[in-house]
Amino acid sequence: MEAIVYTSNTGTTKEYAKLLGKKLSLPVYSIDEAKGKVEFGSKIIYLGWIMASGIKGYKKALKDYDIRAIGAVGMGKTGTQEREVRTKNSIPALTPVFTLQGGFDIKKLHGIYKLMMKIMVKIAGKGLSNKQDRTEEEDQMLDMMLNGGKYVSEKNLESFLDWYERGEE
Ligand SMILES: Cc1cc2nc3c(=O)[nH]c(=O)nc-3n(C[C@H](O)[C@H](O)[C@H](O)COP(=O)(O)O)c2cc1C
User: Fold this and answer.
1) Contact indicator for 89, 55 with CB cutoff of 8 Å
2) InterPro entries from the xrefs (predicted)?
């Protein structure tokens, strides 16, 4: 594996990329930095943030690199929404996808992203607030929407690290 390449907007994907880079002793670059530094066709791990189930920058990275595994960072709990993400981004069955819980902070968003999330918080937040029997996960999601929150942790990378140690890349 040559490098970890990432796309991040509010910083949580960057944090995961750095954590993973440290653990796997691999260089870490944003997709723009990677341009001059990571050779075309190199084996990489790609990390991008989730927007409406799409993985930001994935299509672009796929043109230039041999993506051996994907980290998709979103608001949802680590390990959830893998199927939607896989389908939406047409990820080949043999490419492992690890969904990782990042966070949410409306204050860090600008422009269209801020607007989209304001609407989402209004609609989904209202729905969750009115729900009587919220699960623990839904409680966490509601809290994140209303107050912001960050859930980046090394523990969330366990499955990713296990995969790498198995040497199947
Ligand atoms: C416009 C928009 C759409 C989003 N859609 C999703 C989504 O479909 N699923 C999800 O889990 N998180 C979604 N998120 C949350 C982000 O993926 C989450 O905040 C992530 O941690 C951002 O990564 P970053 O800090 O690297 O930018 C969305 C965020 C924005 C701004």
Assistant:
1) yes
2) Flavodoxin_CS
Q: Tell me, what DSSP letter sits at residue 155?
A: G
Place of tokens 């341009």: 35
Tell me the C-alpha distance between 109 and 43, whole Å.
32
- Specify the pLDDT at position 169: 75
The rounded mean pLDDT for the chain is 96
**Which of 6, 14, 66 has the alpha carbon at shortest distance from 32?**
6
Distance, in Å, from the CA atom of 39 to the CA atom of 52, rounded to the nearest integer, reads: 30
| 163 close to ligand 1 (CB < 6 Angstrom) | no
CA atoms within 13 A on the CB side of 53: 12
